[in-house]
């Protein structure tokens, strides 16, 4: 766990361990999840909506598993906009 936080925040493992000791609610892990979601969203957006074929989307989802969540949220937002 220390290694994951150290890598994501670009700090030495000793610094990450100290920070985690001061983070009893483990908010750092929430941040790591949000950072990974943001990376998946960026990959999804860079792929562009136009011209996505099924094979390309399979490859993107293998590389970025959170792309499924991004896609679900994207369609949910579009659905809400159409209602309102």
Question: Helices, strands, pairings?
Answer:
Blueprint: H1 2-9, H2 13-21, H3 27-47, H4 54-63, H5 67-83
Helical stretch tally: 5
Please give the alpha-carbon distance between the first and last residues: 43 Å
The global form is elongated
Strand content: under 5%
Our Rg estimate from Cα atoms comes to: 17 Å
Overall tally of domains: 1
Return the string of H and E elements: HHHHH
Give the total of beta strands.
Answer: 0
Helix/strand structural class: mainly alpha
Q: Give the overall average pLDDT.
A: 87
Provide tags for this entry.
84 residues; 77% helix; mainly alpha
Care to describe what's here?
With 84 residues, the chain is mainly alpha-helical. It has one domain. The protein is 77% helix and 0% strand. The chain is built from five helices and no strands. The protein has helices at 2-9, 13-21, 27-47, 54-63, 67-83. Helix 1 (2-9) packs across helix 2 (13-21), helix 1 (2-9) crosses helix 3 (27-47) and helix 3 crosses helix 5. The longest helix has 21 residues, at 27-47. The model has no long low-confidence stretch (mean pLDDT 87).
């Amino acid at each position: 766990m220390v290694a994951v936080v150290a890598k994501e925040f670009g700090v030495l493992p000793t610094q990450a361990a100290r920070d985690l000791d001061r983070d009893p609610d483990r908010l750092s892990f929430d941040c790591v999840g949000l950072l990974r979601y943001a990376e998946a969203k960026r990959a999804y957006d860079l792929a562009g909506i136009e011209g996505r074929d099924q094979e390309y989307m399979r490859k993107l989802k293998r590389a970025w598993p959170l792309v499924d969540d991004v896609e679900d949220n994207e369609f949910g937002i579009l659905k809400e906009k159409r209602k309102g």
